[in-house]
Structure formats: C-alpha cells, structure tokens
What we know:
This protein is an all-alpha fold. The chain contains 5 helices and no strands. It has helices spanning 2-27, 29-63, 69-86, 90-100, 105-122.
Amino acid sequence: MLRKFGILIVIGALxxxxxxxxxxxxxxxxxxxxxxxxxxxLGGWFARAEGRKVWAEAQRQLAQGQMPGHSLLxxxxxxxxxxxxxxxxxxxxxxxxxxxxxxxxxxxxxxxxGWLANKVRSGSFRIYGGPRR
Length: 133
C-alpha cells in the first residue's frame, strides 16, 4: 500500500511539474507564478470558510445527539482539498477545488465511505489505543 502511494506521489509530482512548465510556456513565467500564488491564497481562504461550515454542522449534529458521520467525511474532504490547493500545481488545484465545493464533495464522500466500508468488511480496519479502563 505504501509503495503504491509513493508511486502515485511521484507520478503526480511529474504531472504537476509538466503542467507548470506547459503553462509557463503558454502564458509566461510570471503569470504562471501569479496564478499558482492566487490559487494557494484563494484556496486557503475558501478551505477555511468551508471548514467552519463543516465544523458548525458537526457541532450541531453532536448537540442533537447524532453521530456526525457525513460531517466528519466532509471535514476530511475540506482538509485534503485545502492541502491540495496549497501544493503548487494545476491538477492538484482542480482536485482540491472539487473537494471543497459543496456540490462535488458528496462524490468524494461516497468514495471514502465505500473504501471504509470495504476495510471494515474485510477486517483490515483496526483501531489501536482505544479507551483505557
């Protein structure tokens, strides 16, 4: 699993470098730099705003005695989306924005839910260091 993740990171980094290079050839170096910087700044602001909404929804659900399952998965999406927007590159920005937008976030939430359900069914999902008695 770790090996596959490492390979994906290397491939993703190569795609990002290629995308930055192609964009700089198309519009120039400084405009590309400004686009990357603006994406990181706006992405950070948007991630913070969406994170506050998700946090408020989770607190509301907890106050009503409900488990905030969807809110926790939304929080993971907002966190990962915000991190992807800070990473320089255009592909990561596109994926990060789609993870932050409330209209497209359910797609990622459903994928995470399916992945977690498969892990629990197969028995490979374990929780270590639970409550001590």
